[in-house]
Write a structure and sequence with these properties.
Layout: E1 2-7, H1 12-16, H2 19-28, E2 32-39, H3 43-47, E3 54-58, H4 62-72, E4 76-79, H5 84-93, E5 96-99, H6 104-113, H7 123-127, H8 151-157, E6 165-168, H9 180-187, E7 194-197, H10 203-211, E8 218-220, H11 227-235, E9 240-243, H12 246-251, E10 258-261, E11 282-285, H13 309-312, H14 316-329
Parallel strand pairs: 1-2, 1-4, 2-3, 4-5, 6-7, 6-9, 7-8, 9-10, 10-11
Length: about 325
């Protein structure tokens, strides 16, 4: 039995993007017991993965977690987070370990000087560099995301509905979120009901969007569903309109078109929808030619330049045309 520990602490999108690596480890290496270490608030993202045998939760009683990891006596540690904390953990475990090229210098140069030295490689393919020494290769089958919900409870809060469009309005940072005024212009008059998904912090923005579209059938589920229930809503939709956020990466596991809208972040950082098996099934919309973009590799609470042109200057008509084109194919 070969015992392998994979480390990825956060966040939703980054964790979802580790799923191809987990699948390939389990399917390509014989007799493997696969463990993952993640923050306690993200453990549900791994607990439903059939390729994961054990989930270790980081966040409470971490000295006990370290003791359990030491007792497990792993053969290899695969570090898909690569920061000071993971370095300390690897030092504590004293096992052969491998990590991926994080490209922090290239990201810093891109954000601060707009020198794009990033390789044209998705982060998933960079993750696979960490398991190359074990002989594991990318099978190019895309993302895995297994949903686990209580359908009886779910159906009470989200009654079965006919065809609809899902809109993921959340993102950890405001500069990755399209303002309600611009999003309402995209959604105005679309021929399907709209279901808004997001966390509790997105509830108010969802209501604002709903008020901007009087007369349209809009269901604001923000804060009312779990991440797995929101994933089910997205899976059953005709199409997803989304910011650069975790739900975009979850949606890549399902067979629905994705219309992705980018603000201060850029796809060149390697975090665009990962669908190698169907690259024509998603679109990327951004404002090209802005000298201030990307202003961060993650985001800010507000636009540093105060104009937020990366969102307010989006080509609304172009996005609508792409939505229409995807719906015609459906």
């Amino acid at each position: 039995m070969t015992k392998i520990l994979v480390i990825r602490f956060s966040s939703i999108g980054d964790i979802v993007l580790t799923s191809p690596v987990l699948r390939c480890i389990k399917e390509q290496l014989p007799n493997v017991e696969l463990h993952v270490l993640t923050k306690i608030q993200y453990s549900d993202l791994y607990s439903t993965n059939p390729h994961v045998d054990f989930v270790h939760e980081w966040g409470e009683e971490n000295h006990l977690v370290l003791a359990d990891l030491k007792t497990a006596d792993f053969d290899f540690v695969i570090d898909l987070h690569k920061n000071l904390r993971t370095s300390k953990i690897k030092s504590h475990l004293r096992k052969d370990s491998f990590s991926f090229p994080k490209l922090n210098v290239q990201k810093w140069l891109y954000v601060n000087f707009k020198w794009n030295l990033m390789p044209d490689i998705h982060i998933v393919d960079r993750y696979f560099e960490a398991v190359k020494p074990l002989g594991v290769k990318n099978d190019h089958k895309g993302i895995d995301f297994r949903i686990k919900i209580d359908f009886i409870s779910f159906s009470k809060r989200f009654p079965t509905t006919d065809k609809y469009l899902a809109v993921a309005i959340g993102a950890q940072f405001a500069t990755k979120r399209m303002p309600a005024e611009q999003m309402s212009e995209i959604l105005k008059g679309l021929p399907y009901p709209i279901v808004i998904v997001g966390g509790p912090g997105d509830r108010e923005e969802g209501e604002k969007l709903r008020q901007l579209l009087p007369g349209q059938n809009i269901n604001n589920t923000c804060g009312g569903l779990t991440i797995h229930e929101s994933a089910q809503v997205v899976k059953d939709a005709q199409l997803l309109i989304t910011n650069d956020t975790g739900m975009m990466h979850i949606a890549a596991a399902f067979e629905l078109p994705i219309v992705s809208i980018w603000g201060n972040t850029v796809p060149e950082l390697g975090m665009y929808p990962y669908r190698p098996q169907a690259p024509q099934s998603y679109s990327i919309h951004q404002v090209d030619g802005l000298s201030c973009r990307p202003c961060s590799k993650i985001g800010f609470a507000q636009c540093p330049k105060k104009h937020f042109k990366c969102m307010v200057d989006q080509n609304i008509l172009g996005i609508r045309k792409q939505i229409d084109a995807f719906l015609v194919k459906k």
